[in-house]
Amino acid sequence: MDEEFVSCEENPGSALVREVFDWIESAIMALVCVILVFTFIGRQVGVSGDSMINTLNDQDRLVAVTFMYKPKNGDIVVATKPNLRNEPLIKRVIAVGGQTIDINRETGEILVDGVVIEEDYIREPMDPRSTGDMDYPVAVPPGYVFLMGDNRNYSWDSRYQGVGLIDERHILGKAVYRIMPYKNMGGLYK
User: What is the pTM of this model?
Assistant: First the structure.
């Protein structure tokens, strides 16, 4: 009878194996959740260059929300449109489909639907010589956006035919939160 009792006890080695499998299963589930979140809800992206100074700096790391996102004026977005520099564009939406954008080549003022837009987020007023090579006014067709960097005098954006208007299908998402550097961590607002 004692032999039967001993054989019913759990082998210490099998408990360890079961615990290892539980850890592996938890790690796989966590990985699947992370993949689903980054595929359907949000992504981490890095800023490259100075075109968004003072709002964003070179090497900042951002979280961009991708789920059910529709671009709006003033949003900072990540666009993956193929371009001459072959890198994602992180810029601000200036005009959306159905709007007309014009840039006064003498003053550098930007007008959307005939109204000068208020831009307290830009680094400095745009040099009238930095208006790009587009012919203004530009009517933005439905499903497209016109993007510009906040550091207007040093931004390669929709003002240049090498970038041009961006199809909304190339918008990865809206940048909503800076995660690095830690000292600047926080939400991104207009």
Answer: 0.77
